[in-house]
Specification:
The complex is a heterodimer of chains A (about 950) and B (about 450). Chain A contains 35 helices and 30 strands. Chain A is α/β, with parallel strands linked by helices and about 950 residues long. Chain A has 6 domains: about 120 residues, ATPase, nucleotide binding domain (Nucleotidyltransferase, domain 5, 2-Layer Sandwich); about 140 residues, 2-Layer Sandwich (Nucleotidyltransferase, domain 5); about 120 residues, Nucleotidyltransferase, domain 5 (2-Layer Sandwich), CATH 3.30.420; about 140 residues, Nucleotidyltransferase, domain 5 (2-Layer Sandwich); about 180 residues, 3-Layer(aba) Sandwich (Rossmann fold); about 140 residues, Rossmann fold (3-Layer(aba) Sandwich), CATH 3.40.50. Chain A is globular, with a radius of gyration of 30 Å. Chain A starts with a strand and ends with a helix. Chain B is an alpha/beta fold and about 450 residues long. In chain B, the strands form 2 sheets. In chain B, strands 2-1-3-4 form a 4-stranded parallel beta sheet. A 4-stranded parallel beta sheet of chain B has the order 6-5-7-8, sandwiched between helices. In chain B, strand 3, helix 5 and strand 4 form a beta-alpha-beta unit. In chain B, helix 2 runs parallel beside helix 7 and helix 6 runs antiparallel to helix 7. The longest helix of chain B is centred in the middle third of the chain and has 26 residues. The chains are: A alpha/beta (about 950), B alpha/beta (about 450). At the A-B interface, strand 5, helix 3, strand 8, helix 18 and helix 19 of A face helix 3, helix 5, helix 11, helix 15 and helix 16 of B.
Amino acid sequence: MKIGLDIGSTTIKCVVLDETDSIIYKAYERHYSHIVEKAAEVLARLDKEICKGEKALLSISGSAGMGLATACDVPFVQEVFATRVAAKRYAPDADVVIELGGEDAKILFLTHGTEVRMNGSCAGGTGAFIDQMATLLKMTPDEMNEAARHAEKTYTIASRCGVFAKSDIQPLLNQGAKASDVAASIFYAVVNQTIAGLAQGRVIQGNVLYLGGPLTFLPQLKKSFDKVLKLTGTCPENSLYYVALGAALYSDKALNLAEVADRLEKYSATASYAFDPPLFASREEYEAFRVRHAKASVPRRPFTGDVGKVYIGIDAGSTTVKAAVIDEEENLLFTSYQPNSGNPIPIIRQLLMEIYRAHPGLEIGSVTATGYGEDIVKSAFGVDYGVVETVAHFTAAKHFMPDVDFVIDIGGQDMKCFKIENGAISNIFLNEACSSGCGSFLQTFAQALGYDVPEFAKLALFADRPVDLGSRCTVFMNSSVKQAQKDGASIENISAGLAISVVKNALYKVIRASGPEELGKKIVVQGGTFYNEAVLRAFEQEMGVEVIRPDIAGLMGAFGAALYGKAKGRKQSTLLSLTELENFTQEVRNVACGLCGNNCQLTVNLFPGGKKYISGNRCDRPITHRGAENPLNLYEYKLHLLESYRAEPGPRGTIGLPLALNMYELLPFWHTFFTKLGFSVVNSGAASRKLYLEGQSTIPSDTVCYPAKLVHGHLHKLSKMAVDTIFYPCMTYNVDEHLGDNCYNCPVVAYYPEVIAANCHELQNIRFLYDYVDIHRHKDFVKKIGAILARIWPDITRPEVYAAADAAYAEYDAHMAQVRAKATEIIAKARSEGRQIIVLAGRPYHVDPEINHGIDKLICSHGAAVITEDSISHLVEKFPTSILNQWTYHSRLYAAAKYIADQPDMNLVQLVSFGCGVDAITTDETREILQEEGKLYTQIKIDEIANLGAVNIRLRSLFAALEQ
Amino acid sequence: MEYQYPRFTPEMKKTHTILMPNMAPIHFEMIVEAMRDEGYKVELLDNSGHDVAQEGLKYVHNDTCYPALLVIGQFINALKSGKYDLDRTALIITQTGGGCRASNYIHLLRKALVKAGFPQVPVASLNFSGLEKDSGFQLTLPLIRKVLAAVFYGDELMSLANQTRPYENQPGSADALVHRWVREIADQFDKKHGVTLADMTANFNAIARDFAALDVTYTPKVKVGVVGEIYVKYSPLGNNHLEEFLHSEDCEVNLPGLMGFVQYCIANTSITIRLYGGSRLVALGADALMKWLTRREQRMIDAIARYPQFHAPTLFEHTMQLAKGVIGYGNKMGEGWLLTSEMMELQKTGFENIVCAQPFGCLPNHICGKGMINKIRTIYPNANITPIDYDPSATRVNQENRIKLMLSVARERLNDHGSGSAGTPAPVYGQVKVPGVKVPGLSPAFAEN
């Protein structure tokens, strides 16, 4: 008898085979993270029912089985390998196996050179991801599958990780997108993630086998794979058991199962893990802590008929709706806190009607909306004011501590931290994808472990050895928690560990503080997450300071909004009347904008009286129907300049240039160079999501930045454009503008052509020139490029090369001069109109709309002008920096930051591509340069992510801070 | 903005204890000895564990590469330990000066020191690129010679220990021998010996002889090569004790030597000039230095090759050639073409299983590591390479699971073929003299793409 046990991240699978390798027993059960106990239970059962005390051949497999196997001395079979063993035996015709598990994704190529691959440490498209997304849709995975069947269209959802996807999905839901469409989009995101992460240049074709839980239970997911791969794969019998089968087939050690079960139980007693000091040393300490925090409370008053004029604040957050009503003395009369269920409008309508009905003749001074849903609430209900979240929270914090230095707000999804100097917000920190540990994160874990949130938080308080869980991201956290459980950490210690990790994440990742002195002495913490006393305590412990946590920590946005409205001093609110609310209707329509290349999916909400609210747009064109080009947007201008480089007929053939990475700056150079030499020069044009998807299967490293990943799409596109030659040189050095100590390109920009040459099979029949060329030494360049060209076109003469090079350098200079002249013009125009000027600082390739996601337009829609870092960097002399200033693009960034010091109407917003290692260095330096000059620093991290909700809050906070 | 950071002045040589991170344990112990002989008070840091990474996360941008987090965390952890007089302690860190972010470690360290409250602690740069010329720490010729000798000895000891450890009959005998030789070399350095060509040849031979005399039994084992970003490749702190893990999985491990990286840096000097222009004189100087090193390298290889049971490393010249047609020699940031070359070399010498280790988000390795695996596989279809990312919160289990996948495939092949290093003396792949390669100096052909 052979037994295979597959202990995965969420389930345990087991099979028993007889002498002929036929299955005589199989079982599939969830283990709810009680891995050791469950495994012991399964083994004991097998011993009793099947083996009846006899020895059997046994091996263990699965991601959670590894440590266990070693501990109880059972042979371990790596799970992907086990799948292969089973596939060879039970599905000998399969060419490719795609297996999705709880937390792993795997692709096995079985024919034409066996290759087995599994996802790296950063990955989302797995069972756990689907569960997480289903929770977001308030569905079970099965319901999600059913919903996806009725989808009419799909949205673009970032698939790299659950966190990214969440920030795409939540706003879609809030804007009224249909759940069925979102469900289908999630499945496509999983497919894209699997292919982008694991195909790595190999084509998935032939007989494809789908294995694992998600592909077995979710036929729509399987269909999505079929559709994208353009084939029909099969989900075989026993598709859940392949790993267990492989383990059974590979087993060769006879063991007594009861003894193994015994050893397992002993194992949990011996394991150990890294831990932090306890949150409270004693009960007394805890009591003192409680008493201290009870003091920060807001005066309340019953909401009776004689309260006088009231002010209402509504905070329509991403997952909840909060409301507060205050009177003239700023007493709190009424509060409300409820989940928004994907659409805040009906909930707020209900709430307002209840207030009207309970208080006939109520005198409403003003109603103020804030939060993600601020705009839609404003246009739906005739609300008086809208205020950006950060300002609302700051207003509320001031109420508790007028001289507050620092406010930290940790909500369900977002973390907002801001520093206050001289009564105004001087610095804003918002969480990003990899620093997303917030309230919902604690909630998810509490639920997964079978507790509600308050109960879970209580457990943490007296934990003796809180687990040290690190602070990176939710995906990592999952596996850390599971490991800690295997190592014997109690629920108490895990709860405390999670609370500490949320705090560390806020401090070290979001704020990047190294000590309390950086935050200041007067700190107010708020947001629903701080109701969790473990989090509150962990924060005080980590920073070594005592902070104020208002008793309405979770309602500070709404409270602040009410205060804000009150301060405006309006006499009579414009809020809809009770009758109007009773007759209120909301109609949601989805349309594609189509006014420009972004082709935004618009969600149009129609309200009574012809009022309309459009969302999903990046710019204000669908609303204002203004002309295409904004005269104050240098990003648009640069893009137009590049579009003007068109192919001319050329006798020597056609050369293709990928418009990616540094080509975004050097297109004028190379286009002119090759055109002058008699080539017809075409380029791949600006990128799009479609272009990315077409190139994604050849990306070898899934953690490289998005602009680099796009190169694969550009090459794919060029390969279809009937070009003889693609020219994409390796360039160690960039142009030398004498702003730094050296003039390097970053390693990715410098050498990405090597990756293309090594991985893109589209290039098989095209000449791909990717020689090492540098243009910073004019004389050496002509020699070098001459030799390269002579290799292929011996008829090109030296004088021709010299002339072409001269023309190329001249064109490059002219191009840069044109950009800079336009910047001068924009600055002058903005100044004459009294507008803010934003230096949207990135790299040349951030001009691509697929990379910047229309952030330039978004800034312009706030009435500001947008210029680039390279349009002002030449106005600064080289100056000392505290880091090694050795990359040309980044030298411009520092120079631009320096330049705006004495330009009161200029501010800098830095675009950072996710995964840009160089920016780990540049962001801190740029921040320091700006802060030294008393300027605000704003950073926007971008990736595949397409939604601009969080970006908008950041920008509005910036503008609000500038107005103060 | 600029910091006024404290310089490491010549006087500090007498007054200050210099703390140094331990990247490659065997090599660095000897390098430290060499520095002590030159009058520096140096101490190699061995603090490790949870707090080291935590300090790093606290004082360095969390998206910075893992080696920077660890090294800076290790320094700050040491300074906070109370073991050192803060006014009489200095730090030393290597600086490569290339286009990778690693050139910025020293600046990140200085920033971190200010943040952590140690602004008085000076940092010296150990580099061959002429950066930080005003520092009181200078590589004098005698020191350079000792350091280079230490790197050679370290490579030989590491290579032979790795080839012996899996097969030794007395567990621990190989490590004991390494330890004995590290002491021996330290003593020689102390007496101003061990750096001439003759001394080195004698030592190379004696080391090989001692290892050959160890009592071993050869059985077929899975052979695994380790390549990657230099810090996580060698440092157990950086790679979660990768060598130890592979050893516990009953593998023979091969870490290509540290001298390769030194030679790679020298080769790049002349390649850069040939590719993009620059001083011919500098290029010739680099070639001469390369020639000088190659003579010593050859002696080491000869010493090992005398024993057929060992596979000697191949000449750098030869390793370098293997990158040709796979990746361009202009790819010089981080480990650049050397990493690809090493993977090719391992394929050629029976180590088709490879762990390619890098910090999470390592920029150069997107290209020369992960980016080249497909291409290597088209040349060596059996290449079984697994890239592993290291970072403060990647779990060890996750990493080991992926390595185990690679090992499963390797074991299956070992069982299927039963050949490889089966039973006895490994086949002599460590061919000493490479046909067609004349002695040193870089042929200009290498500089072509």
